[in-house]
Design a protein that fits this description.
The structure is a homooctamer.
Chain A lengths: L13 H5 L4 E3 L5 H11 L7 E4 L3 H10 L4 E3 L4 E4 L10 E6 L5 H13 L3 E6 L6 H5 L2 H6 L2 E6 L5 H6 L6 E5 L11 H8 L6 E3 L5 H11 L9
Parallel strand pairs in A: 1-2, 5-6, 5-7, 7-8, 8-9
Antiparallel strand pairs in A: 2-4, 3-4
Chain lengths: 225, 225, 225, 225, 225, 225, 225, 225
């Protein structure tokens, strides 16, 4: 049982307390630790569990215990049970500025999907060719929350936020040349977005972006929403 | 008329395009420029205009043209017309970790209020005395969006996000000793929050925090919300 | 005579060597030193001399020796003789993202003008309202070089560079909230512009931007241009 | 004998001078150098010697000379003689915010243990689930010194320090997403802790944290303690 | 009564919970807010209250309500009641590397004193003249905790920690030339001290240093100390 | 066809819009993605396509679809069709401060060449031996644009800009000892060049430097150039 | 007597121990403290005492006790006795890249002079006009040590070091536009000088530069020099 | 012949111009380039050539052309001809704070030796055990120049400079825990040394340190030294 793991204390009542399931951050854990957690998780098919930042060894450990788990290799993410819940709430659109931003964008997409939202993916809409993003404006304006993943200059969230009413969750990626400093440059760009309505999360943190978007687009539990 | 201002092009259709009114960032503008904008604004009493980062000279300039404008000196904010619109959407709770974070917190509060949300303020609930924030848990859990303003270690958003289902908009303040580096320390803390659901905005940017919270708590324009 | 100044050695043959006149950087010089340089300059009405970063005391010192000098207070710039040379070469367009970027933009404009280029100024075309910059596309596409001054997210040069064939000289300004870090944020954005064709200069360095644009738009001295 | 090592001068009288034994920092030393030091150490079974930051090659070198040495692979630490001294002084509690912080936490634990303190380990008590740390409050309040190892937001030391009378030794770890910048984020958080009583040591420096905690919890050599 | 302050919630039971009194951080508070807190404090003469980072206006506000408060202008600190409690626990020695470090050192000294410790001050013992610190070795070795305040290279804590058994609380100061970067240089030096036993606090944070030293030198509440 | 690529949207009309062809940034793309793009490119022999930052696997993928593509391994660049267009416009000179800067310099050279400029390469002309650069002054003064690639102190662009009338495109490289910080040091040097006329691009961004130089040296499309 | 100063312990035997006199760093000291030190100094006319970083109030305090002290206002330096000792050792040349670097250069010059060296000053020889420094090559090659003060790109020390056999003491100044970051840019340039033989000191630290140059150019006390 | 190398221009007259031989920085060069340079060097046995930062492949390339070259693997340095010149000038002492600093210290030592100085090496004299450095004071005081290599807190140069009359060349190393930031921490410490007389060079730049020390300790070419 989870409580007996000597190295981790699963936050079992997080779903009850916050309304969102547990996620297991695999980086920094040994495959053995991840396998033990996966085994503990098997006893709780009623809640979704995400495994994020799962390298090949981590993924193998999870699949040894949960062979039918959903697995997106590029996004380094697994989910179990493998089917997301029936969606409710508003639409979450995830946009990737460039192809190199796709792994982070897909981590966000799957997270929002497994947390119960409808999702759409938009790719290669960087600001160097404005017509590409303008062409998707209809879709973007239907969203209740938009995730934008961008590296290099990180300018896309500013542009998108200026065009829509919904909040934009901006996730900087570590894509780029030297002075991107591992994602610092787009991070600062997004924090300084001249259009209000940009919510910034950590560099390459697709999971956090998808989670935040899912919360924003959630049906409000009371009658106030 | 606004279009004729030689130094600014007011984004008059922003309300139409984004659903949110224009804000005039006063820092870096001369009092004369601010006064000219205020005069142009007077012709449009149907939309709210916010003047942010308004020092004493800026405030004087605004009030010379809009004498009945709402003015919160500590928050360096003015609004006109002086009465916020009838609120709709969900509740926005604004929490200040310490007394020194109040100016930023109030800038956020007024922004959300003038953008049409119901708001509540909670003060002095820093993590050094956990009982203070735990005592407000009921109020926090009623919110559709929570703004948390904190300087120094900036740890409060992590703690709050771990206790509620709603998104937390975290605004770092420049309050603190040397190694806070003008708000850099709480900014990094918030970006690295171990609890998902934290949306970070710029240092001391109460306006941006309030705007984002108002968007999150907005009634969704379609039937999906 | 200049050669006898005990604290400075004017680069008198710079015009001959580089084709561009001398500029006197006033910050860090005493008003007395600036006055002495202005007096030396008076003997050379055949070449333009610019005085940059001239505070009120510096300006007073220059005007005491060169009373008819051109003076733009906001741009902190003086020029003598007061009339720019007859323009040749291509058009230089200077764009300011926001009103607060105007002082830097005008320093660039005057520099290009006094170095012999035709110039046009465009204001308040930040990316938060894309329609504003798109409306000026015709003008922008007529330019041989475009200077873009922007603070905060510094995203405008990326967007402009993606729309035109001419090089964009990007000058970050120190306008913005805390995490702009005195212009560092837009500086990094510009260096990481996802559209090629962006030439970055120092923070708030309108003089350098205008000089570079004037060089780019210069008639080429040989038959190759 | 140690004095004859051509590349190191062991601080043999450190135990006499400071009351604490020598530690050999293996990173940056060749396995041959480490083996030579281990051989020299063998002549002094009366004092404990720690080998820290010992990679596999270093560990092999130590064990070739001191086959019965204590070895914790994850903590990259060896100790000889393999049994810690009889404990005295107060209790040292070591808390790890997450499973990924365990290697650093265990380096601290073993260091305190081999320096003569009673120790207890607490795992997975990050602030995202406050109930987990609150449940351990009794144990934490029995400690004379508490080591807290945390990456990401590094918020746990602030929270713990606000709940207890004992000093908290905070050791930031390099665990986390991009904007943790290799431990810089939790380091700054801890330096800015809004609760007084937090003693910060270097990133990932479990040895230093355990040593400092052992000093704080030491029986005071005179009658003043 | 404190509970009614609209802008602050005094942590009245902190003494009960942590064993240490409340401190009021004045920077960022208005004089009116500080005066209101001082008035509230007057009702509780049984516990010590410290007012830290109190500029002239803050001090005036405190003294208007608590005219007999202790006040050290250089240290920007007030305390009330004006007499520290009867000391117990071990000796706290506070060392200032240079004269310019004195304000921070004295803030530490008074804090430890009002928290109930015996204290001694040592001045001008920087490492550029080693004989000065070596001459005070007897006093340093009698301490249960040593505070070292140093700017510039911040090397003194390393040297002191190598000579004594007690923990050294290192507080970097913002004293120094350009590349000290407002205290960043000595902060990094102290975090990287090659001698173990150095506990680092925030730049210029004499209060935090004194508080931590007082905790380390405290009589242990149970029989384990 | 390109439009059907699921992970990228080629900017097919970029040549029409900007006058310059598409470049495919390979870093962060999988070899499969690069191969698919190369296959799509094959249908458009009328425009040049550059593949930049192409590691061995990327290069193999390109060559599998475009076997006759031009390939410079050191510069990590491929181009197809393999012959550059007939040159027009002014001369672009590319100077490398040291041998280690050659890969970046050659990426710039090939980019300018495939964008239609005549080019010359100058090597090993660092400022530590001024005579080397002075000896090339004639060539440098014939250029319409000069690219200077330099690591370490990055001083060469300042020196060159002081000697010529043409703009200098400065590209910092990540060559150097520790305090070069991966190219940050020469980047800052170039941004602070005391000679005006220096256009800075990103660290190691030879592609961007060559592109910008090609634009500067372009024949101006109208009669104004 | 000095020993009785309650806030400072003058390093009276420093001349004996190191061969160089005491310097009093005035920044961070009160005028009263500086005056007391000046009074103590008066009793020792046999050794030179320098007062560095002396603002107007500090200077007044020194002159009240030592009315005939040497005072260079721009360099913020005083010396007593007012006459430097008879020079010996080699020549120290001090070069200032620009006029704005003069205060730092003169602090270096006076320091070397009062420590007993012959000195020469060279001004306005920045690398933007190479002919200016080349013209002084004869003087530079006669020096035993050269101090170079430069802000902005800080490129001058690299260039000078490549031309001479003597060591170059490089002192970065805080002169420049935004991305000079208060002297960080020239500091990094100098540390990365591609010519060996550059000794870097702290930003704006003319005193340290002059002291180091005086040591380098000193007659060697034994027969080995 | 060297002049014909297509990728490098050897500075053949550097010995004539500066009095010091050429050094070949191998990092960033291919083994083929290094071998070609070594072959060119073979024709000039009259001057010493150093190969620095030579990894195993570089060393092999050098030795293939110059089989009898001197080679110190740890210091990654080769020299040819293999015997240093007959020493003259003053003594250079090289001190390594810890064993891990030895590679850098030995690079400095060999450089000074091959540039013609007598040298001595002192190891493991870090400030955590002051008695170790004090024991070597006689040797240190005989030196005309002292190189100190130190990582972590980098405090040793300050301490040594306070004890001797000769200049101290301080070379920070990248040895240490996380917050040493690859040598940044000791670099800042050394730049802020509270004792004057510290000449700082780049991180891990043993070559630069040895070269500078050799220049300082050189016999002065005129009668002034």
């Amino acid at each position: 049982m989870p409580d007996e793991l000597p190295f981790a204390e699963l936050d079992l009542d997080r779903t009850a307390r916050r309304g969102y399931p547990e996620a297991v951050y695999c980086a920094g854990k040994t495959p053995e630790q991840v396998a033990a957690i996966a085994a503990a998780v098997r006893a709780r098919p009623d809640v979704v569990t995400l495994f994020t930042r799962a390298g090949p060894e981590h993924a193998k450990a999870v699949l040894s215990e949960l062979p039918d788990a959903f697995h997106d290799t590029d996004a380094a993410l697994l989910a179990w049970p493998p089917e997301p819940p029936e969606p409710d709430g508003g639409l979450v659109v995830v946009a990737a500025a460039g192809t190199s931003d796709l792994p982070v964008a897909r981590e966000a997409l799957h997270t929002a999907r497994f947390l119960g939202r409808r999702t759409e993916l938009v790719v290669d809409v960087g600001v160097a060719g404005l017509h590409r993003v303008l062409r998707r404006l209809d879709l973007l304006r239907r969203a209740r929350a938009i995730v934008v993943a961008a590296g290099m200059d990180g300018a896309l969230p500013s542009v998108v936020a200026g065009l829509v009413a919904a909040p934009v969750v901006a996730v900087p990626t570590s894509v780029g040349y030297g002075a991107a400093f591992g994602g610092l440059a787009p991070l600062l760009t997004m924090l300084n977005a001249c259009a209000p309505g940009v919510a910034v999360v950590n560099i390459d943190n697709g999971y956090g972006a998808g989670h935040l978007a899912a919360q924003i687009a959630a049906p409000f539990p009371t009658d106030q929403g």
